Recover the amino acids of this structure.
């Protein structure tokens, strides 16, 4: 079995705690573990995150939108329609109106504040899904002194640039698509750092990506070269969203630093098999 690569020092405790736990990687529960058999239809709910924490996960992935009255919600879609029994755009609804919706027939859409309070020892990987959520999230992190509890990303370069400016570089952020392209195509870490200004703490990318201009072909994003360049530039590589054991083993063999999964049970089993699961945690788990 290939020995795990040593992750780089990023200067952010959220990521650098791996340096004190040699061989481990970040296991990130995507929306709480959305495709676990016990959680179908309950993504991004308190029940899903409680399930992940009970399995031993301390890194939880979620998304944020903001309501009409300025409350941050842990929710992926811009509208309620897909996963709740109500409809409507979140930006047009108040928190009270969103509270009328039910996820999976039994769960409310949680606020980000509720998750932080419910899981005080968890760290959160947060994807900014709307323009209005950018300033609200920056204010939230400051108000909760959560600089070491979050890593923030967005597919939107504009949103990410604004968030980075508002938080003064204190919060680790993942690369937006154009920055990922620089890591993928430029030949050296020095050039990548010069182009990205050292702003990227982690690349959070799919294993493969379909390219329409190439006839819909699947192109590998995560390669040994990408991992080497990222590490040399002081950035982690986290891959989403990986649910199959064989793919998990392959990516871990390449030396990636973290995996997002909807199958929290499967990833835990794989990491245990490889001796890369962090069994002993130095922080008490939430007992709610």
């Amino acid at each position: 079995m290939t020995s795990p690569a040593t992750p780089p020092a990023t200067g952010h405790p959220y990521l650098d705690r791996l340096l004190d736990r040699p061989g481990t990687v970040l296991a990130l529960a995507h929306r709480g573990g959305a495709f676990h058999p016990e959680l179908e239809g309950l993504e991004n709910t308190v029940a899903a995150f409680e399930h992940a924490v009970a399995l031993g996960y301390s890194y939880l992935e979620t998304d944020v939108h903001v309501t009409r009255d300025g409350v941050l919600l842990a929710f992926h879609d811009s509208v309620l329609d897909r996963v709740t029994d109500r409809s409507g755009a979140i930006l047009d609804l108040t928190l009270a109106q969103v509270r009328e919706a039910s996820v999976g027939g039994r769960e409310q859409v949680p606020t980000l504040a509720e998750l932080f309070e419910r899981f005080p020892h968890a760290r959160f990987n947060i994807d900014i899904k709307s323009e209005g959520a950018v300033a609200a999230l920056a204010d939230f992190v400051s108000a909760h002194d959560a600089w070491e509890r979050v890593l923030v990303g967005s597919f939107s370069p504009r949103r990410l640039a604004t968030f980075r400016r508002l938080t003064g570089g204190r919060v680790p952020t993942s690369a937006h698509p154009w920055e990922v392209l620089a890591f993928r195509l430029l030949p050296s870490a020095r050039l990548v750092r010069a182009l990205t200004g050292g702003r990227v703490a982690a690349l959070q990318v799919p294993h493969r990506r379909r390219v329409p201009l190439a006839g819909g072909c699947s192109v590998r994003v995560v390669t040994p070269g990408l991992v080497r360049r990222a590490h040399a530039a002081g950035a982690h590589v986290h891959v989403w969203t990986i649910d199959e054991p064989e793919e998990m083993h392959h990516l871990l063999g390449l030396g990636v630093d973290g995996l997002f999964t909807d199958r929290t049970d499967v990833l835990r089993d794989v990491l245990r098999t490889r001796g890369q699961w962090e069994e002993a945690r130095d922080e008490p788990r939430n007992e709610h």
In short: The chain is about 35% helix and 15% strand. The radius of gyration is 18 Å. The CA atoms of residues 121 and 284 lie 7 Å apart. Confidence is low (pLDDT under 50) at residues 280-288.
